[in-house]
Model the fold of this input.
Amino acid sequence: MENLDFCPIPYLVLDRNLNVMDASESGYSLLQRGESFFSILEEESSPKFARIIHKELSGKMEVNLKNESSFELVDLFYQFSDVQQRFHMAVISKDNEYQKVSHQMNGLFDRLGESNIIRKDTNHREVLASVSSLYMKLSNTSDWNKEEVMDKVKEIEILLMKNVQ
Done:
């Protein structure tokens, strides 16, 4: 097998049935040899994954992986080798993107609370409730899609611009 010990990201080598044949050290923290990749996929991501991986033999997709008590959004970069009859897969976490959006949202809430902001003739509580509602939609989204998140952030920014000078 390949020497994957020094690969700094989770890297998996899967057979045609998507069972682990080899992995980097961080890959083995996700799955052990012989385990199916489907065992760590979140329920809603499994059909998407199965449809794409067998249709397109190389590419990138975004899925949720199960981790302890919740889910983790990741990008999967994969390539099927006809010669080896194996899938090679790199798993890149998207937690940093979520944290960045969360930080931006908290900044917007802080800005709303500043007393030196001049408000238009709108009920401040109504604006805050609308922003809070959008934030809750973001935090309850199970499949973090970057485009969807950025659309929601843009929606919040527009709402703030309409109600805060």
Q: What stands out?
A: The CA atoms of residues 2 and 22 lie 8 Å apart. The domain at 11-93 is CATH 3.30.450.20 (Beta-Lactamase). The chain has two domains: 11-93, 96-163. The first strand starts at residue 11 and ends at 14.
